[in-house]
Amino acid sequence: MEIERVQTVASLSFDKETIPDEFIRPEKEQPAKTAFHGQVPEVPAIDLSDPDQENVLRLIAEASREWGIFQVVNHGIPSDLIAKLQDVGRKFFELSQEEKELIARPPDSKSIEGYGSKLQNTPQAKKSWVDHLFHRIWPPPSINYKFWPTNPPSYRFLSLSLVSSPYFTREVNEEYAKYLREVADKLFTALSLGLGLEGHALKEGAGGEGIEFMLKINYYPPCPRPDLTLGVVAHTDLSALTILVPNEVPGLQIFKDENWIEAKYIPNALIIHIGDQIEILSNGKYKAVLHRTTVAKDKARMSWPVFLEPPGISRWISRLGNPVGEIHLKVSSIKESRSDDKRFSIFTGTKTLHLRAGSREERVEWMEALQAVKDLYPRIPNSGELTGNGGLVVVSTKRLRQRLMEEGLSEEAIKESEQIMRDEFSLLHNHLVVFKQKQALLVDTLRQLESEKVDLEDTVVDESQRQHGNMSGLRQQKSADFLSSSSFKSAESEFWKAPYDSDEDEGPLDIEDGMNSCIKSVGSNYPRVMRRKKLPDPVEKERGVSLWSMIKDNIGKDLTRVCLPVYFNEPLSSLQKCFEDLEYSFLLDRAYEFGKMGNSLMRALNVAAFAVSGYASTDGRHCKPFNPLLGETYEADYPDKGIRFISEKVSHHPMVVACHCEGRGWKFWGESDLKSKFWGRSIQLDPVGTLTLEFDDGEIFQWSKVLGGVQDKNGKTVASLFGKWDDSMHYKVNGDSRNANGSEPHLLWKRSQPSKHLTRYNLTRFAITLNELKPELKEKLPSTDSRLRPDQRCLENGEYTKANEEKLRLEQRQRQARKMQERGWKPRWFVKEKGGEAYSYIGGYWEAKEKGDWESCPDIFGQVPTDQNSD
């Protein structure tokens, strides 16, 4: 059967300005809809020639933990050798199709070597826009020159055009392999040392000197619709390491922080991928990078990855075809089904992959092959296992003997005491060994039970589906039956499960089926902005504090007058806490839309839910925010929520913070006077102030505390609100017959899931983003912004000593605040309303930011003048 190559398809497609349907990816995978456009962090680039080799090792380990990918420069491979490697590969793909097919991978081959294309697993699957050439380049016994092109001549033999070159092409590849082995040894050593292991540990775990170097030349032809297809779909590499040389056409994308980020092209740099084998061998400390490849419209993209693989692994890869998922065999158990002689399962400890072979004999072959691959990797013990030898424990009685001799005991009594000690210790050690064995047995039993449970569940599901004639397409495959795997990083699996993933802000909640499309689409047209997911790792270890010395002197005092160490603070200011109440601003967007539709009740209910939602972030927050300096400000421009916010500390005593927020169709403002008392065993916080919400149609809401219902103008309760302030809010409409019949109440709002990166501050995912300071933002902020406050920044970075020093320094400025107010100091962006205590936004902040005009903003975080040091 003749196979149509992608290069041929591409040449025919340009006339039509389209591509065949089998290449068009689902929308959730199309580059135009999923790639991130904007300011993104760059893939780490590491100079291997840096004289500070300890720093090089640290950077490699950090990049492998955080990214799973990095680039290396000054790696020792001559640039002209890389150029020749690229030249001969490029010339091969310029040959006629007939010539390239001479070294095509045979359809029935058990090897992946040879020229070929990425084919479909099933008729429903999609093709990738790439042709490739596979062949080994090391070690020599594994090389099959049958799959090395004879044309162009320079691929194997000395070409007249390359007479000045010292390399044959065979020599080019072999010379490249020699240099590449040196680079690989450096990488394996750095990665091993980064785990606290001997330098050779990971290389030995991956196959030692038997590691095979498999070269793959990828050719991605120009594509008339690069927005619809992919060169290679999202995947991680099965290798230990992948060392890749790209050409100048961009296309490699990495999935990080829930976004597809494009790798920057650096001439002559090598791109290093952490593969599955290293992730397994490091017990998950290093991450296999999830990546994909896009294509270009006007240029061909090429890449030369070399996969560093354990001996023989490619034989099993060739039998797998396109992967439907991935597992870590190293920590998995393989078990045959007792109810089906063709079925077997692989249990990882947390999930089970169920497979069905074509026959009973084929199942035996599969299980033997999987076990053989599993046995290739002796698991590196973790730190807890390294501390115990599990055998004879030697106990020293030297100190006991010395003490007994000082007491004047006889030699016979001393020996008897020593023996008693050894016997007791031996008995204790034996008990511990038994407990450890029982623990291991229990873990194995749990794994087997879990595997049997899922096996039984799938059997029941199978029978049920057969009875109803509802067999899934996957179960009808003859060769492999993929029954249950919900968490694999597979290109064909449901990788994009929802628009809001596990550590992404949750979007507006669908209140009920049949809701107006305008309400359901609220927020969907806001741009996506990539924000950080966790706080920086602490620079230094946090120290404890002596509580009693502070408690006894400060009981009953106003908390704003108590000098507390930064241990009691979270890395946010009260100004930022005000903005945190806007986390669920989509409720106000919905309220605006309901009002436009004339549904005043649903508008009021959504406003009430918003008023409560701000309390959800307080759960588990044991630390107090920083007390702002007089005149301190905080801005938040969140286009992904459709809002922008400005707050300012307008009074020191009493401590008052004023804020103003503009949304789409509404404005929100108010002031917060937080009364606080420190009672030794607890902190009492009493929020005081009025909050105002005004919609563009003129309707105004005000509140200072949350009520439990919505009343009409006659005082009649028309809807009831109930729920938990730290979880969710529901409503029932009085007179709703559906509720009278006992149906479920309607959900208004639900708290977002907590961050995966928890700290002692228990910040929400939204709160983690509030103090983020990117370089491009720092240049545009006024000197009064909370993000520039040094003690708060040091606390966030884990520089606790410096944070305390800065906090004490800034509190000297705080003590001048009352004098400043008495001398007529006035807020910059807010004005106190006549005859009241409320503050109104006077405008001008965003215009000043646009112009970069901050001349009226003082340097409130600078050094205290010497003439102000006394109070």
What does this structure look like?
With 871 residues, the chain is an alpha+beta fold. The protein folds into 3 domains: 303 residues, Jelly Rolls; 45 residues; 335 residues, no CATH class. The protein contains 25 helices and 30 strands. The strands form 7 sheets. The protein has an 8-stranded mixed sheet with strand order 1-2-10-7-12-5-4-3. Strands 18, 19, 20, 21, 22, 23 and 24 form a 7-stranded antiparallel sheet that branches. A 4-stranded antiparallel sheet has the order 6-11-8-9, with no helix packed on it. It is globular. The termini are far apart. GO terms for molecular function: dioxygenase activity; L-ascorbic acid binding; metal ion binding; sterol binding. It holds the Pfam family DIOX_N. Belongs to the iron/ascorbate-dependent oxidoreductase family. Belongs to the OSBP family.
Name the overall outline: globular
Terminal CA distance reads 92 Å
Number of strands: 30
Could you list the spans in which at least 5 consecutive residues all have pLDDT below 50?
A: 157-169, 316-324, 379-392, 457-507, 510-514, 737-743, 864-871
SS element count, helices = 25
- The whole-angstrom Rg is 33 Å
Please sum up the structure shown.
Residues 439-466 form a coiled coil. By secondary structure, the chain is an alpha+beta fold.
Give the SSE map.
Blueprint: H1 6-13, H2 31-34, E1 45-47, H3 53-66, E2 69-73, H4 79-93, H5 97-101, E3 114-117, E4 131-138, H6 169-194, H7 201-205, E5 212-220, E6 232-235, E7 241-246, E8 252-256, E9 259-262, E10 270-274, H8 276-281, E11 291-293, E12 301-309, H9 313-320, E13 333-336, E14 343-347, E15 352-356, H10 360-375, H11 383-386, H12 398-406, H13 411-468, H14 517-520, H15 547-554, E16 569-573, H16 574-580, H17 586-596, H18 600-613, E17 624-626, E18 633-638, E19 643-651, E20 656-662, E21 666-678, E22 683-688, E23 691-695, E24 700-703, E25 709-711, E26 717-724, E27 728-733, H19 737-740, E28 746-750, H20 765-770, H21 775-778, H22 790-797, H23 800-814, H24 817-822, E29 830-832, E30 839-841, H25 845-851
Parallel strand pairs: 1-2, 16-17
Antiparallel strand pairs: 2-10, 3-4, 4-5, 5-12, 6-11, 7-10, 7-12, 8-9, 8-11, 13-14, 14-15, 18-19, 19-20, 20-21, 21-22, 21-23, 23-24, 25-26, 26-27, 27-28, 29-30
